[in-house]
Specification:
By secondary structure, the chain is an all-alpha fold. It is built from 15 helices and four strands.
């Protein structure tokens, strides 16, 4: 009983220390961002109307670091897994934070950021955060990945890292979604007995709670790449470890379900941009050459993300964020149900139900977009001066 209470006390103090650090440090980070010029300027794709500090990742990283230092000091000597997790994640996730911070302050070319993510993912794989098996839908048979473990692990980590970055489009959306996912990862880690993952998750939950005080609408600071890359990388690696030690099918499905929202949004973005590129290539006299020269358009930002579509349907920014919080919570609950029950059949049934629900939800969102486009083409636009039209369009976004 005394051991349980001591573990609970360590967890509680970790949560509080991480939260207070992020909450108390953020105002200083806001001032520092203005001094460094690390601010996000308003633009036609942006929802904010004034320059906004964009190095919120500094506060989130500091909160996690303080929480983990406390855990390492109080309990690290009793858990080899905790010590190993701290070393690996400190090197890799810390590297992601520094890479993102450099991009927020001075700018980093996409190729260099991508290379840094791959390098960090390889180090995480070498440190034991890896995908070793995979199963096919509606099948209980599991295939050992062997030599494919490294490339698939790298693909997962790099993909999730960028997926979290892509959903960071509204005040509090990425941080709140990450918070919901991390709570589910922590609960799964308790059930599976992963002390290292649990420690990281508790510190991250506390840090995100403290930061959201300043990031939820109306936000006073953005996560920036320093925050979104750090969060995405950390969620990718701990979701892999947190679902292990159970049924192999469950171990494969749980991380996907935990991160269903950013995965779906990123997948749709890639499909949407690829379709647009292929359509443009078919209309161009250059054909395939036009497509090859413009492949980077697949990675360029646009206004077709799920949160943009919900705003276009008339929901307020805060309403959209809360709706997507509910979606993230549903997928997290399904993932936890899979882990707790540990039944391959139930895991696939729950996953299938979530897929059907998601398809209906996304179908409603994007069909509404098509109806709006058809209606706008059929209506007669008033004659407005081009400069006025551009300003009105920018304000509507």
């Amino acid at each position: 009983m005394g051991g349980v209470l001591s573990v609970f006390a360590i967890g509680l103090f970790t949560l509080l220390l991480a939260g207070l650090t992020a909450w108390g440090l953020t105002p200083s980070v806001i001032r520092l961002a203005h001094v460094l010029g690390a601010v996000d300027q308003p633009g036609h794709r942006k929802v904010h109307q004034a320059p906004m500090p964009r190095i919120g990742g500094v506060a989130v990283f500091a909160g996690v670091a303080v929480g983990l230092i406390f855990v390492r000091w109080t309990a690290g000597t009793y858990s080899p897994e905790l010590a190993n997790s701290a070393r690996v994640l400190g090197l890799t996730a810390g590297g992601m934070f520094l890479l993102g911070l450099l991009d927020d302050i001075r700018g980093v070319a996409f190729g260099w950021k991508f290379a840094g993510q791959i390098a960090a993912a390889v180090v995480a794989w070498a440190g034991g955060f890896r995908i070793d098996m995979i199963s096919l839908p509606l099948s209980s048979h599991v295939y050992a990945l062997d030599l494919l473990s490294l490339p698939l692990t790298v693909l997962w980590i790099v993909g999730i890292t960028n997926a979290v970055n892509l959903i960071d489009g509204l005040d509090g959306l990425a941080a709140g979604t990450a918070l919901i996912t991390t709570v589910a990862v922590a609960a799964s880690a308790v059930f599976r007995g992963h002390i290292g993952v649990l420690a990281v998750s508790v510190a991250l939950v506390g840090s995100l709670l403290g930061f959201l005080r300043w990031n939820f609408r109306p936000a006073r600071i953005f996560l920036g790449d320093s925050g979104s890359l750090f969060l995405g990388f950390l969620l990718a690696v701990i979701s892999i470890r947190g679902s292990q030690k159970g049924s192999t099918v469950v171990a494969v499905l749980a991380p996907i379900l935990l991160l269903a929202l950013p995965i779906a949004d990123t997948g749709l973005a890639v499909l949407r941009r690829s379709y647009g590129l292929l359509a443009a290539g078919s209309r161009s006299p250059e054909g395939v050459r036009h497509i090859a020269r413009n492949l980077t358009v697949v990675f360029r930002p646009d206004q077709g993300h799920i949160h943009h579509q919900l705003v276009a349907r008339g929901l307020g920014h805060r309403q959209v964020v809360l709706v997507l919080y509910a979606v993230a919570s549903l997928s997290a609950l399904v993932a936890l149900g899979d882990v707790w029950v540990n039944s391959p059949v139930l895991a696939q049934l729950l996953a299938g139900a979530l897929v059907v629900t998601s398809v209906l939800f996304l179908g409603g969102v994007y069909l509404g977009r098509r109806r709006r486009l058809r209606a706008s083409r059929g209506s007669v636009a008033p004659r407005v001066a081009p400069g006025v039209a551009r300003a009105a369009d920018a304000e509507s976004r």
